[in-house]
Amino acid sequence: MSYMMYVLLFGLVLGLVAVASNPSPYFAALGLVVVSGVGCGVLVSSGGCFLSLILFLIYLGGMLVVFAYSAAMAAEPYPEGWGSWPALRLMVGYVLGVGVAWVFLGEGWYEEDWGGFDGLVGVSVLRGDMVGVSVMYSSGGWLLVAGGWVLLLTLFVVLELTRGLARGALRAV
Amino acid sequence: MAPPIYSALIISLGLGTTMTFASTHWYLAWMGIEINTLAIIPLMSQNHIPRATEASTKYFFAQATASATLLFASISNAFLTGEWDILQTPNTLTSSLITLALAMKIGLAPLHSWMPEVMQGLSLLNGLILSTWQKLAPLYLIYQIQPTNSNIFIILGLLSIIVGGWGGFNQVQLRKILAYSSIAHLGWMILIISFSPPLALLTILIYLLMTFSLFSSFMLTRATHINSLATTWAKIPILTMSTPLILLSLGGLPPLTGFMPKWLILQELTKQDLAPIATLAALSSLFSLYFYLRLSYAMTLTMPPNNPAGTLPWRLNQQHNTTLMALTTTSTICLLPVTPAITALLPL
């Protein structure tokens, strides 16, 4: 189990490095998809299986849509992958940075228990993450309304930003 | 922009700051800050010119980085200490990281690089919202952190005062000058926040008054460059009297209001046995005073080349509503004698 966690976290860091090394959007969005998938695996290993499921459906689903659209918009004949020299040197740099951070700050993070979602509750019928969702609908009160309003606001923001069409500057093509 | 969307964005600006002000949990405070960032982006790029879109993009990058750092630091704090309460942030590594994240949010040196170029791309009204309203929520969080070690605040403050002065030296664009002025004033505010939070509150209130007056004066004539400022004398002569006074108040000259926070801060720093820091701060403010003086000089003491038609405009019935601007301008110029009353009322 600890090996599984190790593989998942390794994939997480590698995926983040792959995004941050600035390749063509084809590959960077692929890195994002990999990161969200592997992140869901990390969540499962920490005990938050419901949250992981929801994240997989909503976030990864959305990320796949982002990947598809960025692949469509950033189509170029010779995309710059991770083998090109600028992206490769950034990748190596970031991996070295992670190594340095591990050496200095990694005390106590190897083979230690991260603490699961149920924490101090002990043995209980109520799971931490599932109850959280239902609590937001019952005792969450105005926070539920605020959450819904922010989602609507995000829609307005995106619609307003991409409204330019011919007179905007958001697209270079 | 369609009125329903415009109202939704303005309401969300208010909602975000209110949420941060009303919260004791770090997560809710972060939520409020994110709502503010989200709501102001379309307001910034509403005229759809490339420069404004560039400014919104840069603003979004800077604020997203700072928000991510803030969330990371508060979650790490909860992981290490089990405490989500804002007032109970123990002085660990995470407290300093939270301070740095909030400092990047409001544009303190050395995390200030985004500020001048973002301000330059915005219209004057958006610049006003950026330098007044958007600063309130992060400043309130910094106010509540209640640190025990003042080193980080002194470094941030001194660097901001120096950068705010030195950076504005060679600028001719008014919005960049206002950005550097904001950096310098927030530097004064954060310098004193660990010694006397009420004084920091006073500094930020007086700064809000002064900057509102200055922005309003610039908005009346839509001046964005020293050249357009210099031809204001023909259009609205009263501004050539009031704007230099506002500028000198921003520079911190007695007998104007802007002297009050600087004076009280220098006094407090001396009482805390930090006289060299007080001296350095006071001397660095001279940089800012130089470019405020240059603006006043260009406005009042020069008559730049102008065509004859520009020197005698028709006096038509203008539709400006200058009530609030008159109130804040008067406060910017005349509030210094009230200092004893304010000092007595401060700890409230």
UniProtKB/TrEMBL annotation, chain A:
One of its GO terms (biological process) is regulation of apoptotic process. It is a multi-pass membrane protein. Its EC number is 7.1.1.2. It catalyses: a ubiquinone + NADH + 5 H(+)(in) = a ubiquinol + NAD(+) + 4 H(+)(out). The chain crosses the membrane at residues 53-75, 87-105, 140-161. Keywords: Electron transport, Membrane, Mitochondrion, NAD, Respiratory chain, Signal, Translocase, Transmembrane, Transmembrane helix, Transport, Ubiquinone. InterPro entries: Bcl2_BH2_motif_CS, ComplexI_Subunit6, NADH_UbQ/plastoQ_OxRdtase_su6, Nuo/plastoQ_OxRdtase_6_NuoJ. The keyword Methyltransferase does not apply. GO terms for molecular function: NADH dehydrogenase (ubiquinone) activity. Gene3D superfamilies: NADH-ubiquinone/plastoquinone oxidoreductase chain 6, subunit NuoJ. Residues 1-20 form the signal peptide. Its main location: mitochondrion. It is found in: Mitochondrion membrane. It holds the Pfam family Oxidored_q3. GO terms for cellular component: mitochondrial membrane. The keyword Mitochondrion applies. PROSITE patterns: BH2. Core subunit of the mitochondrial membrane respiratory chain NADH dehydrogenase (Complex I) which catalyzes electron transfer from NADH through the respiratory chain, using ubiquinone as an electron acceptor. Essential for the catalytic activity and assembly of complex I. Belongs to the complex I subunit 6 family. This is NADH-ubiquinone oxidoreductase chain 6. It comes from Poecilia reticulata.
UniProtKB/TrEMBL annotation, chain B:
It is an enzyme of class 7 (translocase). InterPro entries: Complex_I_Subunit_2 (IPR050175), NADH_DH_su2_C (IPR010933), NADH_UbQ_OxRdtase_chain2 (IPR003917), ND/Mrp_TM (IPR001750). It is found in: Mitochondrion inner membrane. GO terms for molecular function: NADH dehydrogenase (ubiquinone) activity. Residues 289-342 form the NADH dehydrogenase subunit 2 C-terminal domain. Keywords: Electron transport, Membrane, Mitochondrion, Mitochondrion inner membrane, NAD, Respiratory chain, Translocase, Transmembrane, Transmembrane helix, Transport, Ubiquinone. Its EC number is 7.1.1.2. It catalyses: a ubiquinone + NADH + 5 H(+)(in) = a ubiquinol + NAD(+) + 4 H(+)(out). The chain crosses the membrane at residues 6-28, 59-80, 92-111, 151-170, 177-195, 201-221, 233-254, 274-293, 324-346. One of its GO terms (cellular component) is mitochondrial inner membrane. It is a multi-pass membrane protein. GO terms for biological process: mitochondrial electron transport, NADH to ubiquinone. Residues 23-287 form the NADH:quinone oxidoreductase/Mrp antiporter transmembrane domain. Core subunit of the mitochondrial membrane respiratory chain NADH dehydrogenase (Complex I) which catalyzes electron transfer from NADH through the respiratory chain, using ubiquinone as an electron acceptor. Essential for the catalytic activity and assembly of complex I. Belongs to the complex I subunit 2 family. This is NADH-ubiquinone oxidoreductase chain 2.
